[in-house]
Amino acid sequence: MKNWSEGKAFLAAVCTSGTVLAVTLGIAVLMRHAPFSILFPSMPTSAQAATKPLELTAEATQGRHLFLMNCAHCHGDDAR
């Protein structure tokens, strides 16, 4: 294999990097202008999740009490 000079190697690296960047940006442009319905098909309203009201059980109440006694002094009452 023929030895490349430093200038030729630099030029090859710049050309390769530019080609990869151009291909990446080209794919991004094509993806951006694709029809939205192809990317994210619409869901029927019957398939959407129903909201369930929050019900606290005895275990949840006990867990809250344990959290307030053991953890709230560092993490705060809202666990943040």
Q: Can you characterise this structure?
A:
- This protein has helices spanning 6-32, 36-39, 58-70, 72-75.
- It has a domain at 1-41.
- It is elongated.
- With 80 residues, the chain is mostly helical.
- It is built from four helices and no strands.
Beta-strand share of residues = under 5%
Q: What's the order of the H and E elements?
A: HHHH
Main beta sheet, described? none
- Ends distance: 62 Å
**Can you count the beta strands?**
0
| Form type | elongated
Q: What's the helix count?
A: 4
Radius of gyration: 29 Å
Mean pLDDT reading: 83
Low-pLDDT residue spans: none
Helix content: 55-70%
Structure classification: mainly alpha
List the helices and strands and how they pair.
Elements: H1 6-32, H2 36-39, H3 58-70, H4 72-75
Features:
elongated, mainly alpha
Summarize, please.
The protein has 80 residues and is mostly helical. It has helices at residues 6-32, 36-39, 58-70, 72-75.
